[in-house]
Amino acid sequence: MPAAQFLPCCAIVLLVLSKLTLAQYEHLGYPPGYGDQEIQLRLAGDKRKHNEGRVEVFYNGEWGTVCDDDFTIHAAQVVCRELGYLEAVSWSPSSKYGKGEGPIWFDNLHCTGKEKTLSLCPSNGIGVSDCKHSEDVGVVCSDKRIPGFKFVNTLPNHVENLDIQVEDARIRPILSSYRKRIPVTEGYVEVKDGGKWKQICNTEWTQFNSRVICGMFGFPGERKYNARVYKKPTYWDFAVNCTGNEAHLSNCKLGRAAELKTNGTCAEGLPVVVSCVPGRAFAPASMTGFRKAFKQEPLVRLRGGAIVGEGRVEVLKNGEWGTICDDNWNLLSATVVCRELGFGTAKEALSGGRLGQGMGPVHMNEVECSGFEKSVTECFFNKESVGCSHEEDAAVRCNIPAMGFQERLRLSGGHNPYEGRVEVMVERNGSLVWGTVCSEGWGTMEAMVVCRQLGLGFASNAFQETWYWPGAVSADPVAMSGVRCSGTEMSLSQCLHHGAHLSCAKGGGRNAAGCSVSAPDLVLNPQVVEQTTYMEDRPMFMLQCAYEENCLSSTSGQVPANSYRRLLRFSSQIHNNGQSDFRPKASRNSWVWHDCHRHYHSMEVFTLYDLFTLNGTKVAEGHKASFCLEDSECDEGIEKRYECANFGEQGITVGCWDTYRHDIDCQWIDITELKPGDYIFQVVINPNYEVPESDYTNNILKCRCRYDGHRVWMYSCHNGGSLSTETEQAFPGLLNNQVTHR
């Protein structure tokens, strides 16, 4: 065939193929020419982080949703990668993130996971669905972004509510005074788009935008800065539109396209600069004025969290700490809590007692915040908490500033990242070197701080001699000694220590730590103590086993066998409100057999019982070895796991409690020589911190006790940390007898 005739023939064939290509969409319900159409995705909905939510699609000028019928992790993969995330973690049916509005654009999606956009996945056809919004699908994407991801806005500028999707964001310090400061609080706001860092033009920048940026980097507020010292750089293509209550830049909406000059500079403005105000825990020592403003006791606190900035939310009301019910709990309310406590915005709003269950009242329910309140106590809430239990306690995880703590500590030689010899980075002769920590005094509290500093959760073990974890040979010399931690510090360097003048009598540091993402939390039931207290006179000849186990006062050794001892008896009901089982530190092969009582002690000192005068002087004492750690009873739906019979495993399961009845040996204080009067009764569980817990403050129980020589009364019993500081100070002797570390 001649070339002149061949070309028209090919053109006809190509035209037919083109029409057939477009026609393949028409039988699926797509309009003619659908192959030329574009869609845009976003994540929306309630109680979500920036990388999760209800899948929403913008098409034909309107936002709509996706039905969960036939939806799979492959479809979730396409959604997440189209939004710039590395991969999908999971997906959720049945409108987990709330019901959407508008059309249901996709139904019965069948994706392979390799499609570049959701519109290329086979489906019933766009807009063809028999679903309701109760079937709206949601996805959870990984935190990590696709390296080099380029955000492309395929929609007109007038389209609202399009989420910002960029590879990364940062505050880059420019002034020398801020480059040296940790944390970085001032500098250019830069977004990483297409693998390149770019500044944002400040033409439409507002204070609300700065508030969001500071919040996502862990700062509760923003402040003014000196604009004259900053230069003009390279700009991003878009403006940013935040309302101020978003938790993350990704929750803000895309503004208009930036008007840039031919040389790439901002047409009417300068690059965006933010200057953030750090919370008091992260403020430099020189910022004393900021610290003084927080002398008043806060109305909100976090409990049960493994690291700084996370925990169960507790509020103070009428002098008593209580929890918040998780009904309607979301990121807006969680962010108010985080900012109030000196952190940034909330990363997560947790429900269902995820960070442990509290004790005492539930003070707030159905909390609704605008995001601009100074305190969560200013938010609207339902004062009635009918139907709420501590299984519904609300919690938060907050954004905190990057302090660089993790770079100055490491666990070396362990079998996994959660264990190993503790090695610290210190400055020696102008150089940064790695070294070990002196073993003397090393214990659970120090290991707790190590795990917190590394972001690895709670301590599970603290070892002083660890020859089976050799660590790095170059780090063998001792670099830190005299370490004493209270357990609340953010880094090991904040604990008391010897500084540059090392002193390690034993020589060498073989300390190690094991970390765990969860921990138990033992709490005594104060009502049980009040209701079961009584007095008994018991003959000495019936107390021989108790005498052998040192459960009587020291004077009992000089009295005849037919004499009597006066005992203050009571029951202890010890709940495990944490997130993992309470297990004794000692392994079963090292438990001690007590022939007199015919049982094994897994912990020689499990509880301490003491009586103090009102000025804090101890006048009587008792102690309780762990006769038998087991599950006496459990909450509904939880099975008992530990039973002491037949040399069984010992422990207390999460959601269960161990009851030491008033009528068993050593469940008393010997008050034979006690004079009549008013006293403070105190019980301390796990007093030597042998077993790591998420919260030690509630291991103490205190009561008022009155003894007239014939009768005894126990009243006003409460757990440590359950009352306000003012109320506890009004409780005589309460602060004088606090348990101290070692």
Briefly say what this structure is.
This protein has 742 residues and is α+β, with helices and mostly antiparallel strands. It has ten helices and 40 strands.
3D architecture notes:
The protein is α+β, with helices and mostly antiparallel strands and 742 residues long. Helix content is 12%, strand content 28%. It has 10 helices and 40 strands. The strands form 9 sheets. Strands 14, 15, 16, 17, 18, 19 and 20 form a 7-stranded mixed sheet that branches. Strands 1, 2, 3, 4, 5 and 6 form a 6-stranded mixed sheet that branches. The longest helix has 24 residues, at 3-26. It starts with a helix and ends in a 13-residue tail after the last helix. The model is unreliable at 1-36, 286-295 and 732-742 (pLDDT under 50).
Helical content stands at: 10-25%
Please mark out the parts with pLDDT under 50 across 5 or more consecutive residues, or reply none.
Answer: 1-36, 286-295, 732-742
Oligomer: single chain
What structural class is derived from the secondary structure elements?
alpha+beta
GO biological process, one term: chromatin organization
Protein name: Lysyl oxidase homolog
Catalytic activity: L-lysyl-[protein] + O2 + H2O = (S)-2-amino-6-oxohexanoyl-[protein] + H2O2 + NH4(+)
EC number: 1.4.3.13
What features would you highlight for this structure?
7-stranded mixed sheet; single chain; globular; disordered N terminus; transcription regulation; alpha+beta; 742 residues; metal-binding; 6-stranded mixed sheet; 28% strand
Please write out the topology.
Blueprint: H1 3-26, E1 40-44, E2 52-59, E3 62-66, H2 73-82, E4 88-92, E5 104-106, E6 138-141, E7 168-172, H3 176-179, E8 186-193, E9 196-199, H4 207-216, E10 221-223, E11 238-241, E12 253-257, E13 273-277, H5 288-292, E14 300-303, E15 310-317, E16 320-324, H6 331-340, E17 346-350, E18 362-368, E19 380-382, E20 395-398, E21 409-413, E22 419-428, E23 431-437, H7 444-453, E24 458-463, E25 478-480, E26 512-516, E27 522-524, H8 526-532, E28 534-539, H9 544-548, E29 564-569, E30 572-576, E31 592-594, E32 599-601, E33 607-612, E34 618-624, E35 633-634, E36 656-660, E37 668-670, E38 677-685, E39 700-707, E40 712-719, H10 725-729
Parallel strand pairs: 3-5, 16-18, 23-25
Antiparallel strand pairs: 1-2, 2-3, 2-6, 4-6, 7-8, 8-9, 8-13, 10-13, 11-12, 14-15, 15-16, 15-20, 17-20, 18-19, 21-22, 22-23, 22-26, 24-26, 27-30, 28-29, 29-37, 30-36, 31-32, 33-34, 33-38, 35-36, 38-39, 39-40
